[in-house]
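Below is how a single chain appears once it has passed through the pipeline. First comes the sequence as given, then the structure the pipeline wrote out for it. We keep one example in the README because the format questions we get most often are answered faster by looking than by reading.
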Amino acid sequence: MFLKLGKILKKRNESFYANNGFVAGIVLGIIVALFSIMTVFLFKERFFSELSQAEKQYGKLIMLDKDSLYWLSIIVTPLVIVIVHSIIGLYIGIFINKIKESKNIVILLASITLGVIFGLITRLPANRNLILLGNIIAWVLFAIIFIYLNNRSKTQKNEV
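Resulting structure:
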């Protein structure tokens, strides 16, 4: 698994778009991870309620007590979120490198689309509209950071 991750990370060297997508993805992952931690902390009772409902419906699937699952979701989930978003950012960068025109528009549209998709599939103990809005805002921030890094890289490339 880690060897495959290493191969994926080497793709950052393909272009400055790939590397900038990776960096913007890390920032995005940190934002989403903080949102996740904050949501789980603020809606702790709802977290335990949904966990109890799932246990009633499906049985006990994981042999950990609820408190352990709570802390596991606060510690492990944000790390996974950052890794997943950085890899998604990397692949967006690779894709953007292949586009000839209107890169910024494609970045913005792709980011909004991914924000909606992630907002709809994210399962947190909070209001669905809050989750959707939070994801869209985070992905728009990704687009802004990515475009900024790309413009800075182009300027530095032209100066050399």
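The mean pLDDT is 87.

See the next section for the split statistics.
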